Amino acid sequence: MGSHSYEHYVKLVEEDYFGNVSRQDIAGILACFTADARVTIYHGDNEPRRFSGAGENGASPLPSFFEHLLGNYDPQFSDFTHFVDAENDRCSVHFKVRLTPKADSPYAASGVLNLRNCNFFLCRDGKIHDMIIYYSNPEAANSTNPVPTGFPTAT
User: Fold this and answer.
1) Do the Cβ atoms of 131 and 37 come closer than 8 Å?
2) What 3-state class would DSSP assign to 115?
């Protein structure tokens, strides 16, 4: 059973994890995860993207996701709504994401992306062990690029 409070999970997710993403601090981001963490990203009908702390089981190494994201975008997060089940070490959050392409990014011509995300977190030892990301791009209907972050297709 969980040993952390509601406040711990809100801080871990909003201040530590998303705060470090906003500050573009990859070491700080990775410190929020267990060494064997998993991340799965779902977007529409696209194949799920999988990342892991060790890059095992066909998953890409976890740092590669953040290196790509922060190498190409300046992210901003807002309007967080948290749902916490502290007893079972899990939480979720619904929020808005604004991704501004960096000037030298191959995605610069795409312009600013405004997304709506819902992330689910399973935690262990006070850190994120499994993160599932669902996101939608309300502007996608008018776009020819179905993958808002432009992450290369898994091979």
Assistant:
1) yes
2) strand
DSSP 65-112: HHHHHHHHEEEEEEEEEEEEEGGGTEEEEEEEEEEEEPTTSTTGGG--
29 with 66: CB under 8 angstroms? yes
CA 40 to chain centre: 9
pLDDT at 60: 86
In this predicted model, what pLDDT tens digit does every residue of 25-78 receive, in sequence order?
999 999 999 999 999 999 877 888 888 887 667 778 899 999 999 999 999 999
Which CATH number covers residue 17?
3.10.450.50
Q: How many CB atoms lie within 10 A of CB 71?
A: 12
- Domain presence at residue 66: yes
C-beta separation of 36 from 53 below 8 A: yes
Would you tell me how many other CB atoms lie within 10 Å of the CB of residue 96?
13
Q: If you average pLDDT over residues 72-97, what whole number do you get?
A: 97
Would the pTM of this model clear 0.90, i.e. be above it?
Answer: no
Number of separate domains in the chain: 1
Closest CA to 93 of 126, 124, 132, 119: 119
